[in-house]
Design a protein that fits this description.
By secondary structure, the protein is an alpha+beta fold. The chain is built from six helices and 16 strands. The protein has a six-stranded mixed β-sheet with strand order 3-2-1-4-6-5, with helices on one face. It has a five-stranded antiparallel β-sheet with strand order 7-10-14-13-16, with no helix packed on it. The protein is globular and about 65 Å long.
Length: 335
């Protein structure tokens, strides 16, 4: 082969020699690797574990360009510290808050913007979007054109925040490009940088995504992964708990209310997950999982990385049982 070819779905270098290696395709004349072909056509997900070192190198190379960066965040799964990514680049940033369609419509966009304004993150502007619903996509494009410093604009963020989905929507709306980037609920679906020319003066560069080792998606099977990934607007479930009562969410999470007055717990997770209230002392369900002892302040959320969050109104002492590798933490209430 005279020159290297790369998969138009995930960006990986194509090869036809090793079926078990990344980038395998049945024919080097193809434009797509077998992994992407199976995901797109049959919904067969194949896990690929990528090193964050590779992604950090990409971010550092972005810093050298001084191009505009779109930093995407999943509104249901906001990282504990969104500033960490700033260690690797100081480019101008357009903050894009994705998956607006997943949060309840009753939540006002203005309240979400106010929350992020308090986080002391350095950005030029902020846009709340839903590519699935074509929500604010026109506004996003206008702001990209306003702030870009060259024809190239990088799209960065953690895995599964929806970078490729956004680019597919922009391609469909504003270009004649007839291909699609591969999307799936799995981490590390995009494996390399992919350049998409939307117009003569705008090229979007998709990046693989920073892998969050504390995200629950890394520790569940494909069936559970589909269940915990919301497909439509979440219907919050509110429970009034007294001390010594518990909430069990699917077969993944248990919250024991150890100490506090009568309290309101509102659960924001996929509608496909069952939530039930039980008596703490007469049910051992999920207590074999790792236990976190957490003190919750007034109006805080308990965040379960990759699963969602629970809004807790009053002060509380709780025990949280979950896979030992899944990150849980508290924050000021988003809502």
């Amino acid at each position: 082969m005279d020159e290297d070819k790369y998969c138009i779905g995930c960006g990986i270098k194509l090869q036809d020699e090793n079926m078990t290696a990344d980038g395998y395709t049945t024919s080097i004349e193809n434009d797509i690797c077998s992994r992407c072909f199976k995901m797109k056509n049959y919904g067969e997900y194949q896990v690929v574990t990528k090193s964050n070192d590779e992604y950090i190198d990409i971010l550092k190379s972005v810093n050298d360009t001084k191009d505009l960066v779109i930093y995407m965040i999943d509104l249901l799964n906001i990282s504990r510290d969104i500033n960490l990514i700033r260690e690797y680049f100081d480019n101008k940033v357009l903050l894009v808050l994705n998956k607006r369609d997943i949060l309840p419509k009753s939540i006002k966009d203005e309240k979400i913007v106010e929350y992020f304004e308090k986080l002391d993150f350095d950005y030029q502007d902020i846009v709340i979007i839903s590519p699935k619903k074509n929500y604010n996509i026109d506004e996003l494009l206008l702001k990209i054109k306003k702030y870009k410093t060259s024809r190239n604009v990088y799209v960065v963020g953690h895995t599964n925040v929806g970078k490729s989905t956004l680019i597919n929507t922009l391609m469909k709306n504003y270009s004649e490009f007839d291909s699609e980037l591969t999307i799936s609920p799995l981490p590390s679906t995009t494996l390399n940088k992919i350049s998409i020319k939307l117009s003569s003066d705008l090229t979007l560069i998709d990046t693989p995504g920073l892998v969050d080792r504390g995200n629950i998606v890394n520790y569940v099977d494909p069936i559970t992964l589909k269940k915990i990934s919301p497909k439509k607007e979440i219907k919050p479930k509110t429970y009034q708990l007294r001390k010594n009562q518990s909430l069990v969410i699917g077969d993944l999470l248990r919250i024991d209310y150890i100490e506090g007055d009568k309290n309101s717990f509102t659960v924001f997770v996929s509608n496909d997950l069952k939530v039930k209230r039980i008596n703490m002392y007469h049910n051992e369900e999920l207590k074999d999982l790792f236990k976190h002892e957490i003190d919750v302040k007034y109006h805080e959320d308990l965040v379960i990385n990759g699963l969602g969050f629970v809004k807790i109104v009053e002060k509380a002492k709780i025990n949280v049982y979950i896979n030992k590798d899944v990150e849980v933490f508290t924050r000021a209430s988003l809502i």
